[in-house]
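Why does residue order matter? Because the sequence determines the fold. Keep that principle in mind as you read this record.
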Amino acid sequence: MSETPVSVPDQADFLSCYRGRQTILHHMGYMRMAKVLLALHVCENVGISLENKSIFDYGFGAGTFFRYCPPSSRLFGVEVDPENVAAVQGMLAARGFRNVNVCTIDLKSWSVHPFLKRSYDIILCSHILEHLPDPVLFLKRIRECISPAGVLIGLVPINERELDPHHVQRIDRSKIEEWVQAVGLRMTTYLEADPWLYWFQPIFASQNRTMHVLAQAISFCVGLPATALNRRAWFRLSNIFGVMTRSLPIQAAFVLTR
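Structure:
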């Protein structure tokens, strides 16, 4: 199977989209916090501790998840933009993290990256699989990096009312189970959450400039209370909101083990 098929949608937007976005308000944006909150929620529910663990965030974006890791954790991560990688490294150093190793990755030769020659206690793949033409190939390679007692935590979008133009895959539970079976991993946890942006999702998928500005405003408005509230309270409120507004969850999270 080819690692770089010609039919992949243009992903050039991600080459520089995180530049200059390390302010507190940027990190509070719900498009970031929704993913972080769900990842932390899964860890809490399953009993996965981040203390003294080696954590590899494949595609760490602006590094928001790292901000919520304990100082004792050993952080590893890859992203495509050198300027963004340097900014995240500086942000983590300023917050007192000392065990940090983040660097760039060339997507054309991703499978031979030096970080993929190591093993990790926790691997986070947050909103990665939907961008890949061959998620099974990716998961097979990442499988080798899971330590014997380690886990892979995956987050993906679900119930997309309008497919994001950057997404190759439209994902549901059956598709995830199909991938996991093909890779030879075991899915120990699966949950769906986060109904807040269900009705607004087409706005976030739009490439129109006005819609993009509106999406940013919505993201900040929802992200502020999401960041301020206790996580458990936020997810309880999310369940109530989903029922009252008939909103479907727009994220799924799952835990894989060897």
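Residues 209-228 form the longest helix (20 residues).
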